[in-house]
Design goal:
With about 230 residues, this protein is an alpha/beta fold. Helices cover about 35% and strands about 20% of the residues.
């Protein structure tokens, strides 16, 4: 059976540590046409602020996922469609490859495996918080990105490979290389999507475009524009 994200074009990622513009509501963002909502972030995450955003998005038909940044912020909620668990394949620190995951299982061995999907992140913006925290090696050639993508799919069995530029628009040849390295895994792309054109451009390479900061910086219409771009690619 095809995984739900195999049919998606666009994901809206909401960061509980960031405010929305004064005239924007979570209800409006959930109604932009995005295929799924992902709740998560790198810094400032707590179980309480994660829960607040999850609850604010709970009354919509859009699939709702949590992406916890550490084991202590995992929210056990029936309104969630599931959990995306990141592992950073180019991390310099092994904690972000398997260490955090081991701690989660040690703290809570009763994991609902059928509600969990793993994402193999390839982090490529050296100035991003996620690169700093994971000590990621971001100085990669396209061929190396392709190899990482293949390792993630073929050796680690990852269903999702996520090319992450986190806050800046990435290099298309690197995203295209990741796509070329995959056969069945779904390729997510995130970073610097600000309008229709950038969404459509990256969606020609990636299966799913992830938009995050835009919702907090500019609001509903800007997000809706990226949905249209992703779906028109």
């Amino acid at each position: 059976m095809t995984a739900p994200w195999g049919e998606w074009d666009h994901v809206l990622k909401l960061d509980p540590d960031k405010e929305l513009p004064a005239d924007v509501t979570y209800d409006e963002l959930c109604a932009t046409g995005t295929d799924a909502i992902q709740v998560g972030g790198t810094t400032g995450m707590t179980a309480d602020n994660m829960s607040a955003v999850i609850d604010a998005c709970a009354d919509h038909d859009v699939p709702l996922y949590q992406e916890p940044s550490s084991p202590d912020v995992v929210v056990d909620s029936p309104v969630l469609s599931g959990y995306f668990i990141p592992t950073v394949v180019n991390a310099g620190s092994p904690f972000w490859i398997t260490g955090a995951h081991k701690e989660w299982l040690r703290m809570d061995g009763d994991v609902e495996w059928d509600r969990l999907a793993t994402e193999a992140y390839i982090v490529l913006n050296p100035d991003s918080d996620v690169a700093t925290y994971t000590e990621a090696d971001c100085d990669l050639e396209p061929a190396e990105v392709r190899a990482y993508a293949t390792v993630a799919e073929r050796m680690l069995g990852q269903e999702i490979v996520y090319v992450e530029y986190s806050g800046t628009l990435g290099e298309e040849d690197h995203v295209a290389a990741a796509a070329a390295g995959l056969d069945e895994a779904t390729l997510f792309y995130g970073g610097g999507i600000r309008d229709y054109d950038s969404a459509r451009s990256m969606a020609t390479h990636a299966d799913v475009i992830v938009v995050g900061d835009l919702a907090h910086d500019e609001g509903v219409e800007a997000v809706r524009e990226t949905v249209e771009g992703a779906k028109d690619a």
